[in-house]
Design brief:
The structure is a homodimer of 382-residue chains. In chain A, helix 4 runs parallel beside helix 6. Chain A is 38% helix and 19% strand. Chain A is built from twelve helices and 14 strands. In chain A, a hairpin with a 2-residue loop joins strand 6 and strand 7. The first copy, chain A, is an alpha/beta fold and 382 residues long. In chain A, the strands form four sheets. A seven-stranded parallel β-sheet of chain A has the order 3-2-1-4-5-8-12, with helices on both faces. Chain A has a three-stranded mixed β-sheet with strand order 9-11-13. In chain A, 56% of the residues are buried. Chain A has one domain: Rossmann fold. The termini of chain A are far apart. Chains A and B meet through helix 6, strand 6, strand 7 and helix 7 of A and helix 6, strand 6, strand 7 and helix 7 of B.
């Protein structure tokens, strides 16, 4: 299959590209490196040194003999994007190419507008590029479980059957996102659903939980992926592991009862592959809830404390004031059956896996800037 | 009250500004005239000649002694917008300042992106301007009933109580909009709800039906408003009236069973005033469904045929192929109680009113370009 990975330089994009290439698919990666620019502006960088994407693509070819095509392009540049779609003729498009951080979007007007503009317009351009050059291709779009918020009813996969005043309808599941970043994913979903309904495109919206982990089968030296431990781009379990190793207390925001779906980075790749190998039909907008386990922040903190003890670390927990505005104790029961039905074999969060992250952090601890792990972006302050 | 009308040059914005000024409020209007530029690009113009906004504001002062402050500014220019909010210190902001046409948004990628960028980013800037300079002001945002689509259940006002698997929640009413323009209103609503929930702003989202009519109490000569009869910016009943007078068949798209909420332009102003005089509390995101009557397109066509006969016109109906993708026969029962509870006195659609439009069209028929009334923008063609 010809597979185009948008955001191919990123935490999930790069390992996804390697995986599909290893499986024998014809893979292209698209990236503008704007996320690297944002990192430079904020003074943050991945834990492990990352080669340029140009070098990694060459390295991959040297190691495996397989070619990954590299397209340097910004999704907001529609003319060049059209050229890429015309030349590569993708059959599946894996779309990770968005500003991925909730705190970044909450840093003030400039960042909010940049996030919404980049994500919404970039995705609109992708839809128009598909319509023009590959209307039968399958768009696999990374969304987030955060689109739904934390409603007091079970969260279904994209749609809900509602009975109301004696009548019935199947409608998009109502959403209440928790940041201006999460809202971009809500807006994208609505725009993509429209493109499927009106133009007959086909898409899978993967409402993904919080991803953790640092390695996949292919992230050997020189082919590493971007693991962030900072409070802006780092996800919670990854941050906790770094805090444990460097002797900083685990920063639990508020009461810590915030419960979310989580999955291993290996399972992200597995889920995306399952979606790609089982495409929807034309005109279908399909939504999968993509996670394997539910944890509260307190659960994760306790897990890291325990794993740390076994590893020889003394780990403390700091229940700090919550910089976000969110429910800290709430009902949470999202359905996540569709990927299981397609054959997802979950990688469970176990101590072993946390140890793997501990090891990688130890090897790179000289690179860590301690000042970056505590949050300083407030939801209610600009 | 200090009231700022965004989009104060437009069909609804200008009469709204005059009305609040006549009521003794301190009114400011903001406009960038980008809609006038779009009209020039498309070769369309309002039926009645419109003086510049600068002249109308002076004319208003000459006639009434009342001052309307004019701010020439684009909502996507946040620096100047901040200055306006800082200087004027609005207590209510009536936000009409968006690209208002569904067909315009469906003309291709350029127009879709322009519409989403203009509307979403403009509104984000308004929210940040409020947060910075008037966090206690009341945002009155014009949305559209088209945000909901045509679900098979009754449409509630913004929120719906859902009982699901034995649990209950009050959640945003699910939406399935019918164009990339309508989607901008969906996205705006979600962003504004977030701003209320997280920052404690207060807002009323007016999900408005299709507006018809050409005059209000203040649209005397020299103070007219922009009545469009073209297929891009003209609303359906206004277009039908023009077609009836110039002897063109009424363009019913498809079967004509498409049913929508409608209201007179006078009632738009009445509804906005009711919202302004009865603000929500801080942190509240309130949604009103703003229309007075339901009609199918066939209902309207028959009504115009009949009114035309009485007026001495011979009117034909052309069931042309539908340029849009939409249900042409569907259940439709939206709730619209909240504005009635605040005291809305509906202006019913009667033959008299249609005659008023016929008269105005007759006076200006020399200005009409017949080629502009038939639609040529297809939803499924780019």
């Amino acid at each position: 299959m010809r597979i185009l990975v948008l955001g191919g330089d990123g935490y999930l994009g790069w390992p996804t590209a390697m995986h599909f290439s290893a499986q024998g698919h014809d893979v292209g990666v698209v990236d503008s490196f704007v996320k690297r620019k944002w990192e430079l502006e904020l003074g943050v960088e991945p834990l492990v040194p990352i080669l340029t994407l140009h070098k990694r693509v060459k390295q991959w070819r040297n190691l495996t003999g397989k070619k990954i095509s590299l397209f340097v392009n910004d999704l907001t540049n529609n003319r060049r994007l059209y050229q890429v779609f015309r030349d590569f003729q993708p059959e599946a498009i894996i779309h990770y190419g968005e500003q991925p951080s909730a705190p970044y979007s909450m840093m003030g007007r400039h960042y909010a507008v940049e996030t919404q503009q980049n994500n919404i317009i970039g995705t609109l351009n992708v839809l128009y590029a598909m319509l023009k050059h590959c209307p039968n291709a399958h768009l696999i779009k990374l969304g987030t479980m955060g689109e739904y918020g934390t409603p007091n009813i079970d969260i279904e996969e994209g749609y809900i059957d509602i009975e109301h005043k004696g009548r019935k309808a199947k409608l998009p599941f109502p959403k209440q996102a928790g940041s201006l970043y999460h809202l971009t994913k809500v807006h994208d979903s609505a725009n993509i659903e429209f493109a499927c309904r009106i133009w007959g495109l086909k898409a899978t919206d993967l409402n993904q939980g919080v991803v953790y982990g640092i390695n996949t089968n292919h992230t050997v030296v020189g082919l590493n992926t971007s693991f962030h431990y900072d409070a802006i781009f780092g996800t919670v379990l990854n941050r906790f592991c770094v805090q444990a190793v460097i002797g900083e207390p685990l920063t639990v925001y508020g009461k810590g009862g915030q419960t979310r779906g989580y999955l291993n980075i290996r399972d992200t790749i597995q889920c995306v592959e399952l979606a790609a190998l089982n495409p929807p039909s034309s005109g279908e907008f399909r939504v999968f809830n993509q996670f394997t386990e539910l944890f509260s922040v307190n659960d994760l903190a306790e897990l890291v404390v325990k794993a740390g003890e076994d590893y020889g670390l003394s780990v403390e927990i700091d229940h700090m004031p919550n910089p976000r505005i969110e429910a800290e104790e709430h009902y949470y029961n999202p359905v996540h059956k569709k990927l299981q039905e397609l054959g997802l074999k979950p990688t469970w969060l176990s101590d072993t896996l946390v140890n793997e992250i501990f090891d990688e952090v130890e090897r790179n601890r000289y690179r860590i800037d301690r000042s970056l792990v505590r949050p300083d972006i407030l939801w209610r302050h600009n």
